[in-house]
Amino acid sequence: MGRILIVDDTLFMRTLLKNILFSGGHEIVGEAGDGTEAVEKYQALKPDLVTMDVVMPKMNGIEALKEIKKMDPGAKVVMCTAVGQEQMVKLAIKSGARGYVVKPFQAPKVLDEVKNVLAS
Amino acid sequence: MVSAPVKIQHNDEWINLKIQIDDEKIAIPSPVNATIPLRHILDLEEKKKNTLTIVKKDGKTIDLVSVDKVLFVLKHKILMKCSGYRLMVQFISPAIRGGVLVTNATWEKGAIIVLKTGIWCITQNKQICIPISDVTGIEMTKREVNDKPTDVVKIDHLEHHDVVSSFILTQVSTLEILHNFLQEATAGIKMEGTELGPMDQQIAMLVYSGMDSSSIQNMLQIQFKEIDRVYEKLINLNMAEVKEIRREVQLTAKGVRYITDATKAGVN
């Protein structure tokens, strides 16, 4: 089980992820609504894993991922993308993302991916 | 010509015999005594494991049972020659399962065949059937192929309660035709998109994600009555079915007395 930071610009998706991850026994240590806030909260909270939306205001998920990897090369980040954003997935993997889930997602699959990344 | 052992249903009895298959026809010996040109076959159905129902143009069906290896060869020969929409394509299936990209999924060269009850994606050593009744969406989208965003057709379908996505790639000129054909074949699943309001959509999304009514109630801070109204709407639109009915109870005086006594006795 891990301490997780959820990053998404919509409250609905954050709440959905929070419920899914909580039901899997994970602890939600924080939430962020954009990339800048994600980087700040990562530094402050040092979570075991981050779920990161790609398209967000201020700083997008890819930029936030790069910033977090600069601070902590071992950071475990799972990207949450919409279907059709495969270019983004590729870019995210190149930038150090450890996993990716595609929206809309199903709870058991998200939990599996998070479990795999936490165990890696 | 290949000879293959099968069991065929004939006059309400299952009989063992050896059928002959070549690139043009299936020959079934006595007592069935039938020759079926492959181009006269309209549909294939696998209702159970190791069974195959062949539907002919005249509406008659042939039910047969055999081992995987025999059925694989039989299906391949039928699918490559039967009467159906057939196109040489590249495909990835499954590419996404339950919202998670399938790792190591690669493009495979093969064919797509659209029959009455199923969309088949086949290669020399793979056969995937997507039942039309399980298709949840068909759309043209873009996917990165050889580092370039490329037009593909995406087919979403339900498989053991997971939503699975497959991608089909072919020449741009035929992709649109394939997309239109698939949309026509799956016309029954089309939605106008106006039937659901914002709250209905949120609840549908949460059901999709695997949330039960209690979690949805807590998450959206709404009354169960409201959730029930949306469930009713989804069921009436054939977008959902009842999985289970739960009951909430409250204790009677007898129940309360039992619990009170049990607590006093130190059982609880």
Automatic annotation (TrEMBL), chain A:
Residues the record lists as 4-aspartylphosphate modifications: D53
Keyword hit for Phosphoprotein: yes
Positions of the Response regulatory domain: 3-118
Keyword list, A-Z: Phosphoprotein
Top-level division of the source organism's lineage: Archaea
Entry protein name: Response regulator
TrEMBL record, chain B:
Domain of life: Archaea
InterPro entries: CheF1/F2
PANTHER family on file: TAXIS PROTEIN (PTHR42201:SF1)
Record protein name field: Taxis protein
Species in which this protein is naturally found: Methanocalculus taiwanensis
